[in-house]
């Protein structure tokens, strides 16, 4: 027994020693050899200087260069400083990258001693690494801010990107490739340039009292005209009158169209709210949108459905071409449509509707308590936990949340005649509606979270890509049966439910109402 414990102790000691050696074994670093000639002198870096940055990524980068300075190239330094100077074009802040301090060091680089050159090199690398991270995936993590955003996290390896830039000697090209390449992001950057071309905004805000109609005469018309001239919707005029004349009506219609409002020339609360946005506030909005686009995936798929929630619009895109566009109805501010990316699975014709918990709690149960006939009027059947039907007379309010409520198929069904399913943790989907008149409203933030689609049968037929079984006539035959039928979407088609409220078209600024009040709050968090 004594020998057994001795042997056991030796084995444990050896095992622990191996484990310590395994944990403490130094990380293998590939030292990168430099090709001569290079500008300036290469200086050794005292590794204790890394401590003040508290950045393992910085340490790892310089380890590849044998703990020596790397920014000998004047061209590369100018590229970096120019990126920092113009960071606002990417929705970022030059101060976050110590632009002023770095620029001062660059102007006197020929007078810097060795220690100052090392400090400059470290500071340049540290801020460039931060900048690459920010342009690749944004400053903020959406999952840390929102509970109803489900986007795949990005994980940018800044050192792989930097080493590629050095290896290929193409720093600018590599940095540009880190930025989102989607057309909307590019149009947002264009919008920032257009906005910056406007002069300082000193026009007062306009108080709302009542709707303003053509030919009305009001003092506020003067300020409205100044705002329309400022935003270039109304041509400059030498003298202004208080009359809401025909030229101003046309200018208001142009302004309304750019802002996704009903272009009827009637100046209501929505139009005045949009007019009262200052240049500064619009800038914040564009920067918030640029940040959001960095969170979105770069690879949307060859074919995808993309929904811009504040625009109330769905687009089907194939090989970068928009082949279909549909109006949509999205969730209210209280019951927001979640932001997500997924892959379409199948369509359901003549769907039943199982009432979700939120609608059950806030709508169905209160209505049934008031009127037991409510469920029958909505063609809703109630089932208990054993699957048996519960009649109106047996319905028990104290057990109401434990029942399952299913609405029968038909034109009265809340989902309409078809729904399109994709996996997601929010249990949302695309569907038809029994309130098709709602698509005529300009404010279509009306649903309980799912996305209702105008003309959904045409969209469904395009997604199924099976004219033999699911052309328009075959679909009508299926609907006439009243029977629920599933149809698989066999082609890989992705769906992106995203949120952006600003962009540009034909050198014009385009904005949409921030229906979930995300823009200004996001800008504050960014800043």
List keywords for this structure.
alpha+beta; 18 strands; 19 helices; cell shape; 14% strand; 527 residues; four-stranded antiparallel sheet
Write the layout of secondary structure elements.
Layout: H1 2-24, H2 56-64, H3 74-85, H4 99-107, H5 114-137, H6 142-145, E1 149-150, H7 158-168, H8 171-178, H9 183-196, H10 220-230, H11 246-258, H12 269-275, H13 279-295, E2 303-308, E3 313-318, E4 321-331, E5 339-343, E6 346-349, E7 353-354, H14 357-370, H15 374-377, E8 380-383, E9 389-390, E10 404-407, E11 418-421, E12 430-431, E13 445-447, E14 451-453, H16 456-464, H17 467-470, H18 472-481, E15 485-488, E16 494-498, E17 502-505, E18 508-511, H19 519-526
Helix pairs in contact: 3-4, 5-7, 7-8, 9-13, 13-19
InterPro entries: LD-transpeptidase_YkuD-like, LD_TPept_cat_dom, LD_TPept_scaffold_dom, Peptidoglycan-bd-like, PGBD-like_sf, PGBDSf, Transpep_catalytic_dom
GO molecular function, one term: carboxypeptidase activity
Protein name: Murein L,D-transpeptidase YcbB/YkuD
